[in-house]
Hints:
The protein has 581 residues and is of the alpha/beta class. It has helices at 9-19, 34-42, 55-69, 81-95, 122-125, 142-156, 193-205, 221-230, 262-268, 319-327, 337-357, 366-376, 389-397, 418-428, 440-444, 450-455, 471-479, 494-501, 511-521, 547-564, 573-580, and strands spanning 2-3, 24-27, 48-51, 73-77, 100-106, 130-135, 159-165, 177-178, 209-213, 235-237, 273-277, 294-299, 313-316, 382-385, 405-407, 434-439, 461-466, 504-508, 529-534. α1 crosses α2 (34-42) and α3 runs parallel beside α4.
Amino acid sequence: MFFMANTKGSDLLVDVLVDWGVQNVYGLPGDSIDTTVDALRRQQKKIKFTQVRHEEVAALAAAAEAKYTGKLGVCLSIGGPGAIHLLNGLYDAKMDHVPVLALLGQVTSASLNEGYFQEVNTAKLFDDVAVFNRTISAVDNLPEVVDEAVRSAYENKGVAVLTIPDDIPEQKMQGEYKSSARAFALATPEVAKQQVEQAAQLLKAAQKPIVLLGVGAKQAGSQIREFVEKNNLPFIETLPAKGTIADDHPNSLGQVGKLGTKPAYEAMHNADLLLLLGTNYPYLPYLPAKGQAKCIQVDLKAENLGKRYGVDVAIQGDTAKVIAALNAQGSLHADKNFLAACQKSMSNWNKWMAGKRKLNTAPASPESMVAYIDETAPDDIVYSIDVGTSTSWAARFLHVKESQKFAISSWLGTMGCGLPGAIAGQLAYPKRRVLTLNGDGAFAMVMQDFVTAVKYKLPIICIVINNQKLAFIEYEQQSAGQLNYQIDLADVDYAKFAEACGGVGITVKSNDEFKAALDQAYTIKDKPILINAYVKDDAPLPGKIVMDEAKGYMKFGQEYLENYWKIPELPPLKDILRQFF
């Protein structure tokens, strides 16, 4: 698209965003960014500006939109305090490797470097979080730099930051500029036939192969499903990749790690071949022991190859292309013994989980609550999961389908990501139902933006798991052998809060009440619904309790007895034993 001379800088900026297909910008207006906001007003039929109540929410929403859609998320703020508020959400985007553009206001060019009101050195402040970090110096290069920033965000799967002095958007460009949006396309390395053959030979020779899928495999779900079925391979998905292949697939072992399943842990520690597809999984104790297994790794980033586990075949490339090349070779692994053993172990795990899914208590059991969400969710639901015990219950009791969307803050693990993610999900997919699962601690960090969902009539279903404590921290302290301290939270009537915002609020105190409330929530389509669910203090035990955690629990019990002269309340012994042995 050509941008003509004599056009205001603010309009040029918005024109470039429109040309790149940006449909939404999250932020708050303010003095040093108002000229850009005014241009968004003039072009509101082409691009939507979503006003939030806190800039952190703007950045978290932009990151979530990028996770759901694979397209650029955009947020803006004034300079100084507003820009600083963006940082948490931008780090979430950086660490989860999604493209986001942040537009920052700044004092006028004439006032720069004079210690003016709200002047912050944004170039220095955002240096670590950004893959592209520029201050616009003249209106004539504004569209070019915006264009370059977007390309960089896509190419590097990260955050591009533009600082815009307040006077420049008011000026008019003298020359012309042609956007690169229509011509832009990312290329991936070609698959080396020799490496594909080496991988095939390792797979043929393996007796106990296991596949671990990451977000880099998300676009290759159908090819990988064919691959694991054709070759009798059990597979595990990292939590952010949940739903790449449906969780109820017979070859699935769920997730691995503290939030994973015991069968996944056991399979990893018996495997003789590890296939890492699009993942940089960091938790080494949950991978095969060093030197135990051969390893095939596929990743677009060469720096990830061999970073976590000694690799025998390191393929820099697109997972879909590599797996397609392997599928073209037919069946490479006919032995079903290891898969059958994993499936038997998973069957036993599922029988145990089935009992948890049927719990009917007052206060409510979160396991059964999330199981009911799973059972009633539409095939195209969009999940936004917050950080804490809500992550644990979602990992274990949501069977995400390939047609559903699922997003979390996976690498930064920032509390408060659930509601912003739901807002972004509903704006990106207006015809789909969106559900966010939050602990009361996490929700309280961003609760003011429930009113944003009300303002834009977004019928998100917001579930608050209310146990009046930082429950995940409680168990972290215990497993480290520490006495619990400052984990209790004052109770808030979140249902009344939702009503005060103009939404629907429902308080529930049993599993039966929760089921009725969720059924009601699905009938409401013009405003957000919040279910304030008072729950039992159920421990989200790891799928497999490792020795260090067992020692920590023993130390905690001893410390508790010595300090309080009584035995602490712990999860049922049968649950602990089942997950330890």
